[in-house]
Design goal:
Layout: H1 13-18, E1 22-29, E2 32-39, E3 45-52, E4 55-58, E5 78-81, E6 84-88, E7 95-98, E8 104-106, E9 114-122, E10 127-134, E11 141-148, E12 154-158, E13 163-169, E14 175-181, E15 192-199, E16 202-203, E17 207-211, E18 217-222, E19 228-232, E20 239-244, E21 247-250, E22 270-272, E23 277-284, E24 287-294, E25 299-307, E26 309-316, E27 319-325, E28 332-336, E29 343-347, E30 363-368, E31 374-380, E32 396-400, H2 414-420, E33 425-430, H3 439-443, H4 452-466, E34 475-480, H5 482-493, E35 499-503, H6 509-515, H7 523-528, H8 531-536, E36 550-555, H9 563-576, E37 580-585, H10 595-613
Parallel strand pairs: 32-33, 32-34, 34-35, 35-36, 36-37
Antiparallel strand pairs: 1-2, 2-3, 3-4, 5-6, 6-7, 7-8, 9-10, 10-11, 11-12, 13-14, 14-15, 15-16, 15-17, 18-19, 19-20, 20-21, 22-23, 23-24, 24-25, 26-27, 27-28, 28-29, 30-31, 31-33
Helix pairs in contact: 4-5
């Protein structure tokens, strides 16, 4: 018998970091499959692959890294076409082309202040149409740009909106669809779908065909018969719609979301198999599944149920290609025959070097909030094949996802397994404000950020303690970015949690509103609801209530939540004599990508919690300095 929290585990910080290799953004063009692979062992470099028979061929060797920095979060960084594969190289943010012989050459020669993302190909005019972001004095300018692939000439096609996304040229090359929105909206608040005619090198006047200030529209596309497909939440859920000569109507009215918040460009949560059938990812209260929508019957039948996640759909012959996430292995690029339901794996990262017998699998739970509402979470119980607990209850780690318009996921997270295999209980909370439960649940946080997210995380602890699952005297909380803000609010406003870890979290809302990037510069308007709330709900203004140890992790190059946020909190806690630790990683931005830094942050966090809760610190973890402890 070994006490909870003291179980030896083969899941080390380095193993967790090595498993951060990820497969992303699969696309199919000309019968060839492409995908991205992130490599923490190479400092977070992202490289592009294509399927070459039974083998995978790397198209972008070092030092190339496929990454766009538009909106800082990027996405939509490459596009395969019959005229080559085009991608944004992280260094310099210029567009490059990969020729059929594998040679790489620059297409644009723009200064690094100009960024590109979210391409479509206008084959008739031999140009890419892309979102561009031009940085200079003041706020960056966003626009749609046309990039000639032969001479690299860049011409702005459409300006005037604060943000653009998802350009799509019709098959006949005569029309263009795109998404636009303006401050103070985020794209999940309200966007417009616009359509215009293409006339030579210019575009005609754009007309709004869907969306508005209170309707979130995204992922427009052209159906095989020329109709327009898009996702809208006008019903209260992100459902698929079709616009043709007969009018505009939902393809399927469903109390489930068929899209997610577009933090990054290039999301594809549905694809047309033909004029009748559409494959789509569906997110309901029970989780996610892959469904086949029959337009004639208006019915969605499951193709794969109880997935931990899916996305980035495309068609390869008669098959569906997509990313599929699981609870026992890393996310894979898969190919599914919708008739036989047979699936094959196209690409997958190396499996983690640990037996899945050590894995704790998520349990979907709903729990009551103090206002009589309901919130959701994934619960992971302690799991180790060779250890059982002695008397007592396990320490509890509460996870707060970012966004806050994000969501928890049942996909394999080795960080979670790192804790559960050591005898911890972990709860990953979908507090009110999370995506995947419809617009009303998502908007419940408007005006209440720093309140409902905090109380929902606290109520998860109360619920688990009442069920006899957890030791409330050893309850810790962890989160990054907006989740880090929830951590700091919970620690300054309550006494439920006895220790916390803030990863690039927000301590001063006033400074954030002043310093953050354009994409999120007005996000606080809806989340807080008033100027007074900037002060009232800033953790740095309530340090009198912070009476437990905190550790801060920060990227030195973070442009979304700058280092001064964490540094100000640390200085104030240091002056107060409160136990505090601060670790800053040079070269890292918003989220850590270097494998060494990922491993160090995991080990340092766990060593910190062990010291706070009087648990033995496993050998090999970083020897961190905790001031005032």
């Amino acid at each position: 018998m070994t006490a909870y929290g003291a179980w030896p585990s083969p899941i080390t910080p380095r193993l967790v970091a090595e498993a951060a290799v990820g497969i992303g953004d699969p696309q199919v063009s000309g019968g060839v499959a492409y995908w991205l692979e992130s490599r923490p062992a190479e400092g977070g470099r992202v490289t592009l692959f294509k399927q070459a028979g039974a083998q995978a061929a790397e198209l972008t060797p070092s030092p190339y890294s496929v990454k766009s920095r538009v909106h800082e979060y990027g996405g939509g960084a490459y596009l395969p076409t019959d005229s080559g594969v085009f991608f944004v190289n992280d260094r310099g943010q210029n567009i490059h082309r990969i020729a059929t012989d594998g040679g790489i050459s620059p297409v644009t020669d723009s200064p690094s202040s100009v960024r590109y993302a979210d391409f479509c190909f206008d084959a008739a005019r031999r140009r890419l149409i892309a979102v561009t972001e031009i940085h200079g004095d003041g706020e960056p300018e966003n626009a749609l740009a046309a990039v000639n692939i032969d001479d690299g000439h860049v011409a702005l096609l459409h300006q005037g909106h604060d943000f653009y996304a998802a350009p799509q040229v019709s098959a006949d090359g005569e029309q263009l669809l795109f998404i636009a929105w303006d401050h103070p909206n985020m794209p999940w608040d309200g966007t417009q779908l616009l359509r215009c005619r293409l006339d030579g090198a210019a575009i005609g006047e754009a007309s709004v065909i869907a969306g508005g200030a209170r309707e979130s529209v995204m992922q427009p596309n052209w159906a095989p018969d020329g109709a327009i497909l898009y996702i809208s939440d006008r019903s209260g859920y992100w459902n698929l719609h079709r616009l043709d000569e007969s009018g505009d109507a939902p393809v399927l009215a469903d109390a489930a979301d068929y899209g997610g918040p577009p933090w990054q460009f290039g999301q594809r949560s549905y694809t047309c198999l033909d004029e009748r059938f559409i494959a789509a990812c569906r997110h309901g209260q029970a989780g996610q599944d892959l469904v086949l929508i029959d337009r004639e019957s208006g019915f969605a039948s499951p193709l794969l149920e109880e997935l931990a996640g899916c996305g980035q759909l495309s068609v390869h012959g008669n098959d569906i290609c997509f990313l599929t996430a699981h609870g026992e292995r890393p996310t894979e690029f898969a190919r599914l025959n919708p008739e036989t339901r047979d699936a094959i794996t196209v690409a997958k990262p190396p499996p983690p070097a640990v037996d899945s017998i050590y894995f704790s699998f998520p349990e979907r739970i709903a729990f009551p909030t103090r206002e009589g509402e309901q919130a959701y979470a994934y619960l992971y119980r302690p799991q180790h094949p060779e250890h059982q607990a002695t008397d007592g209850k396990p320490p509890l780690l509460t996870l707060c996802h970012g966004g806050p318009t994000g969501a928890a996921s049942a996909a394999l997270k080795l960080l979670v397994q790192f804790y559960t295999s050591r005898g911890w209980l972990v709860v990953d909370v979908d507090y009110r404000g999370s995506a995947g439960y419809g617009r009303a649940y998502r908007e419940a946080l408007n005006g209440r950020w720093g309140e409902l997210d905090v109380s929902d995380c606290e109520d998860a602890v109360y619920y688990l303690a009442a069920q006899g699952e957890a030791d409330p005297a050893r309850a810790a909380i962890r989160g990054g970015s907006a989740g880090g803000y929830t951590v700091l609010r919970a620690l300054t406003e309550g006494n439920v949690f006895r220790a916390g870890a803030s990863h690039y979290g927000i301590g001063d809302l006033t400074a954030l509103a002043r310093d953050t990037h354009k994409f999120e510069s007005r996000y606080l308007d809806a989340l807080l609801g008033s100027e007074e709330a900037l002060t009232e709900r800033s953790p740095i203004n309530h340090l009198d209530g912070l009476n437990c140890p905190v550790i801060f992790f920060q990227g030195a190059e973070d442009r979304i939540v700058p280092p001064n946020q964490a540094q100000a909190m640390v200085a104030a806690l240091r002056a107060k004599g409160q136990p505090v630790a601060y670790i800053e990683y040079p070269g890292e931005g918003h989220g850590f990508r270097d494998g060494g830094n990922i491993a160090h942050s995991i080990g340092a966090e766990y060593a910190f919690f062990c010291r706070v809760f009087g648990l033995p610190v496993p050998e090999g973890l970083p020897d961190i300095e905790v001031e005032n402890l």
